[in-house]
Amino acid sequence: MQHAAVTLTKSFDDAILEVTEALAAEGFGVITRIDMHDTFRAKLGVEFPPYTILGACNPKLAHRAVSAVPEIGLLLPCNVTVEADGGLTRVRIPDAREMLGGTGLSDAPELAELAEDAAARLERVVAALKD
């Protein structure tokens, strides 16, 4: 899957805050947060470096998309990952256009405009995160 990756020199916790703020500036709220490192510790007894999946959603875009093609809900919310990598923090953000590729949903004309809008917003998030 195509995605953008940004490496930040800030702490993991500071990166989570910055990503959340950058998403909010583009109309995305974080509606889910999964701290995989905590889940792995609790469920498997395994230590894992800090790794969080943020489920980002732009309610206006999501409403339009699900209203046009209900199956698009299988791809929502848009997952953004934040992971500790040594002394750095890596952020990965998917390409909204690429998410549709190969799903059969990419043929729905109603979604093309929405995917372009979401992709442009996420590209601005990536640009805002660069140190």
Describe this structure as you would to a colleague:
The chain is of the alpha+beta class and 131 residues long. It has a single domain, classed as TT1751-like domain (TATA-Binding Protein, 2-Layer Sandwich). The chain has 5 helices and 5 strands; from the N terminus they run E-H-E-H-E-H-E-E-H-H. The chain has helices at residues 12-25, 36-44, 59-68, 96-100, 109-129; strands at residues 3-8, 29-35, 51-57, 78-85, 88-94. Helix 3 packs antiparallel against helix 5 (109-129). The chain starts with a strand and ends with a helix.
Key phrases:
131 residues, 5-stranded antiparallel sheet, TATA-Binding Protein, alpha+beta, 27% strand
What is the fold's blueprint, element by element?
Layout (H helix, E strand, L loop, with lengths): L2 E6 L3 H14 L3 E7 H9 L6 E7 L1 H10 L9 E8 L2 E7 L1 H5 L8 H21 L2
Antiparallel strand pairs: 1-5, 2-3, 3-4, 4-5
Q: Give the total of beta strands.
A: 5
Distance between the termini: 24 Å
Largest sheet: 5 strands, antiparallel
Shape: globular
| H-E order | EHEHEHEEHH
The CATH class designation is Alpha Beta
Name the CATH superfamily assignment: TT1751-like domain
- CATH fold annotation: TATA-Binding Protein
Mean pLDDT: 91
Query: How many domains comprise the coordinates?
Result: 1
Rg measurement, Å = 15 Å
Please list the strands of the largest sheet in the order they lie side by side: 1-5-4-3-2
Helix content: 40-55%
Put simply, the count of helices is: 5
- Portion in strands: 25-35%
CATH architecture: 2-Layer Sandwich
